[in-house]
Amino acid sequence: MTDHAALLSVAREAVAKATGIIRSMTSFSVAAKGDRDMVTDVDLAVEDAVREFLARETPEIGILGEERGHEGNEDLWWALDPVDGTANFARGIPLCGVSLGLVDGLKSTVAAISLPFLDVTYTAAEGQGAYAGEERLEASKATRLSDAIVSIGDFAVGEEAEVKNRVRMALLAELGGRVQRVRFLGSAAIDLAWVAHGKLDASVILANKPWDTMAGVLLVREAGGAVVDTDGGDHTVRSAATIAVGAGLRDGIVAAIARVGG
Q1: Cα pseudo-dihedral 173, 164, 205, 35, rounded to 10
Q2: I need a surface site. Which of 7, 74, 109, 171 has the fewest CB within 10 A?
Q3: What is the β-pairing status of strands 97-104 and 76-84?
Q4: Transmembrane stretches, by residue range (predicted)?
Q5: How does the average pLDDT of the chain come out, rounded?
Q6: Which secondary-structure segment (H or E) carries 195?
């Protein structure tokens, strides 16, 4: 049986180490790694350090990192984004974070997200609630789209980006005409953590890269929110998209996505 409390302690320490590295590297290089996609040497330094730490502390658990791929156990593994929001970080925009989730089968059971420049760490373990520091989190109770602030994930880049972004543009128009405000924050970790914290009422990410999403998904669920795929079914690591909402907005957001063919 997985000891979630012990593994949460490991996750906290891992993201604290990552935060220390991010704050200490005041100069860095930026390199292209694809169409309108980038990596910094901070991303690489953080991932290498966290991988080394996790391999030492939890050798029986695999790890998938954005920059170095998957190693080890494929049934129980850490999902790591060393700097989620690299484009923000590279421009000095403080909306970025370290995201670390433990994936057991199809769902996450432990999560830690550190926002290095906002001085907050979010944590959760299955069945134990979600927290910002010592503050227990509660997702939004909003029930009307007209009251909702909704974040939308980054537009697609790379192969088939034009086709994928037609749906995003249609969704932007659909939600823009119905919700209180639409926001683009540039970090899935922040989108999801802030849905858990009640700062956002919903987040629509039309993608599901585990290093971006699995930690934040658990935060939202443990805060009383819902996370679903585009069809309204429960989100898993195999889902195509990551739609996080305060429970009262689930049907309204899913219906809006369906109207634009998402």
Answers
A1: -120
A2: 74
A3: antiparallel
A4: none
A5: 95
A6: helix 188-196
Record the tokens describing residue 196, joined without a space: 């858990």
At a CB cut-off of 8 Å and minimum separation 6, what does 144 contact?
A: 252
Instruction: Give Cβ neighbours of residue 134 (< 8 Å, ≥ 6 apart).
Output: none
**From CA 232, how far away is CA 80, in angstroms rounded?**
26
Q: For residues 230-247, b (16+ Cβ closer than 10 Å) or e, as one string?
A: beeeebbbebebbbbbbe
227 neighbors 221 (Cβ within 8 angstroms): yes
Give the model confidence (pLDDT) of 20-75 as tens digits.
999 998 878 888 877 777 789 999 999 999 999 999 999 999 999 999 999 999 99
Tokens of 228: 């679903």
Inter-residue contact 101 to 130 (CB < 8 Å): no
Strand pairing report for 135-136 and 130-132: antiparallel
Instruction: Name the residue type at position 152.
Output: I
DSSP H or E stretch at residue 76: strand 76-84
Tokens linked to 150: 């909704």
Q: With the CA atoms of 68, 73, 77 and 81 taken in that order, what torsion angle do they form, in degrees rounded to the nearest 10?
A: 0
Length of the chain: 262
Contact (Cβ atoms closer than 8 angstroms) between residue 230 and residue 240: yes
- pTM surpassing 0.85? yes
Report the distance separating Cα 196 and Cα 219, nearest Å. 6
Residues 262, 247: Cα–Cα separation, whole Å? 20
Q: CA 142, CA 246: separation in Å to the nearest integer?
A: 7
Element (H, E) at 205: strand 202-205
Tens of pLDDT, residue by residue over 91-106, are 999 999 999 999 999 9
DSSP 8-state secondary structure symbol assigned to residue 248: G
